[in-house]
Specification:
heterodimer; A: about 180 residues; mainly alpha; 6 helices; 2 strands; about 5% strand; rod-shaped; B: about 160 residues
């Protein structure tokens, strides 16, 4: 595409004011790169753009010495970590159950408790409720730990977390230990 | 960041880092040393680079700061002496090589102007990308570009008029 010299002069003035866009600078570069009859007053601009073009073509001859460490092994979650989670959840569940199972009479032969808003007077029935709740929590904990293990194999951010936990709790293979 | 991702990004930027370093330190050999040394330094921080918003901008900013530190360590000034070939004899000597004249004029600019011109005119970065790489705002970038380009143009015109 050919451009009028007056337009090029206008762009050159903008260029030296630091106001040109990349697209306008490309127009200047193309003009000075291909035009054979550059006016005298634009010769300095042409020399500058010629320098830019030549410098852009320079490349490094360096063969960069890259790190070639092996790919990180999937983080192993220590057995201590698994049991810490299970113990913590169990303690929380038992704590909730014990708070709920508060005798309302001093006579220890009477039994009264509320579980999830349900009034229970039978001790065995209360224990059964506790057992069922604990089983449900154990299943959810198991699912959560399996989900975390899977994430640690694919998510770089989680891998970093896994490395930290691995340092704290020893090794465990998520593929075989869950 | 996976080793492979960081290596790919850095390798893709190797020539750009080299040209920037060569423009600042003024030596091809030193620039290649900087490319390798900077890689080693950034490798240790690859996780932080990966979680950043703009890895390329971070690497360019690091390259510039690394070059300036290297210059200070070697007790060189960040501004090259303003040795303009203003005499008629030196102009005639370089008459057939305007490129080297322009290179010397650009090399004599203050580092900020030189780097801003390099990132814009050589690497084709946008103003905000240059601002991030240099740690200055967009207005300061445009001002550095204007001053640097105008200085080179005025010196070139002096040289050309001397030679007439």
């Amino acid at each position: 595409m050919e451009y009028k010299v007056e337009y090029i002069r206008m762009l050159a003035a903008k260029y030296f004011n630091g106001e040109t866009t990349l697209a306008e600078e490309k127009i200047l570069r193309d003009f000075f790169g291909f035009c054979r009859d550059v006016p005298e007053d634009l010769q300095a601009c042409r020399a500058l753009f010629a320098h830019h073009t030549a410098t852009s073509a320079e490349t490094s001859h360096l063969k960069l010495a890259l790190h070639t460490e092996p790919s990180p092994v999937a983080p192993r979650i220590g057995p201590l970590y698994r049991w810490m989670i299970a113990a913590g959840v169990a303690a929380a569940v038992l704590g909730v159950i014990l708070v709920q199972v508060i005798p309302t009479h001093t006579n220890h032969s009477d039994f009264l408790c509320y579980v999830n808003g349900v009034r229970i007077t039978d001790r065995q029935e209360a224990m059964e409720y506790s057992r069922q709740t604990f089983d449900k929590v154990s299943v959810e904990v198991q699912r959560s730990v399996e989900g975390i293990s899977e994430k640690m194999q694919t998510d770089p951010g989680m891998q970093s977390v896994g490395e930290i936990l691995n340092g704290l709790a020893g090794g465990m293979d998520p593929k075989t230990d869950f | 960041m996976a080793q492979k991702d960081f290596n790919e990004i850095y390798l893709g930027m190797q020539d750009r880092i080299f040209r920037l370093a060569a423009g600042i330190v003024g030596s091809r050999a030193d620039a290649e040393d900087i490319v390798q040394d900077l890689y080693e330094k950034l490798w240790r921080k690859r996780v932080f680079i990966a979680t950043g918003r703009n890895p390329e901008g971070y690497i360019l900013a690091s390259a510039r700061n690394f070059c300036l530190d290297r210059l200070r360590t070697r007790k060189k000034t960040t501004e090259l002496p303003a040795s303009m070939p203003s005499e008629r004899e030196s102009y005639r000597e370089d008459e057939k090589n305007m490129g080297s004249i322009v290179a010397r004029l650009v090399g004599a600019l203050p580092e900020k102007q030189r780097t801003a011109m390099h990132l814009r005119d050589i690497e084709g970065l946008e103003i905000d990308e240059i601002a991030e790489a240099m740690g200055i705002n967009g207005t300061a970038v445009r001002m550095s570009l204007s001053r640097g380009r105008t200085t080179v143009k005025e010196q070139l015109l002096k040289i050309m008029n001397h030679g007439i």
